[in-house]
Amino acid sequence: MTLVNQDPFLFHSTVYNNIAYGLKIRSIPSKVQKSRIRSALNIVGLSGFKDRKADQLSGGEAQRGVIARALVIEPEVLFLDEPTANIDQKHVDVVERIIKKIKKEIKTTVIFTTHDLSQAYRLADEVISLLDGKIIKQVPENLLWGEIIEEDGLKRFKTTGDIKFTIVSEKVGPVYISIDPRDIILSYEQFQSSARNSFLGKITKIIEQNHLVKLEIDIGIPLVVIITGESFLKMNLNLGNKVYLTFKASAVKLY
Fold it and tell me: How far apart are CA 207 and CA 123, in angstroms?
């Protein structure tokens, strides 16, 4: 088994020499080395990069390089620590395709960690959810990772981009939060209330569940809202509609 950390480490040498390192210290014959390296470079899409210096690679290319270095030693299990955490979206898509390719063509067991639940369900045959180091049976809806900061005398939870939620908390620092989808009020117009959080978003997904309707709304990040079927029909909601999401600071649960 072998581990690829989320911050790729490469030696000050060529891509080829970096990938060959694990084979050399295992005294793998030169002919076999060349064959394995060629195959690994092809899998990660770096066939034309073998003579390039490691410090000339982008973050995404470096991540693909360390995955190739791990693959050439032919591990039965490949551990990937948040493989797309520090790369741009273009390379996120590339790395996800590589993971699928490894599963399909090499049959190596891939175990990876991620904070992106949708990514986990896209790529994995089995998903295990951990919260505070413990396995949980069901992931809460609207579970987000971010940081609590103090701003204008209030505590706010800051997540992707400029999204900030006003919350009730005594602490600051990294934290998971969740928001119950039933605690979010949906409206076409912004209204005055004691609720401190209000965001304009667009409906991207609608799922009917018995007498309830689950909606996914993009406010810069996806949030799930659950309303009754009666309210759904009354509001005449459709995909692409712009709506306001409003919820109280006390609706944000901290973990």
Answer: 22
The CATH number given to whatever domain includes residue 238 is 2.40.50.100
pLDDT digits (tens, 9 = 90+) for 16-54: 999 999 999 999 999 999 999 999 999 999 999 999 999
Q: How many domains does the chain have?
A: 2
Residue in 114, 117, 120, 109 with CA at minimum distance from that of residue 84: 114
Residue 175 lies in a domain: yes
**Residues of the domain holding 149:** 144-254
Please state the length of the chain: 255
CB count within 10 Å of CB 201 equals: 21
Tokens 């998971």 identify what position?
176
Judge whether 110 and 78 are in contact, CB under 8 Å: yes
**CA pair distance 90, 96, nearest whole angstrom:** 10
Which tokens sit at 90? 């273009």
Contact 74, 86 (CB under 8 A): no
Cα separation, 156 vs 166, whole angstroms: 4
Q: Is the pTM of the predicted complex or chain greater than 0.70?
A: no
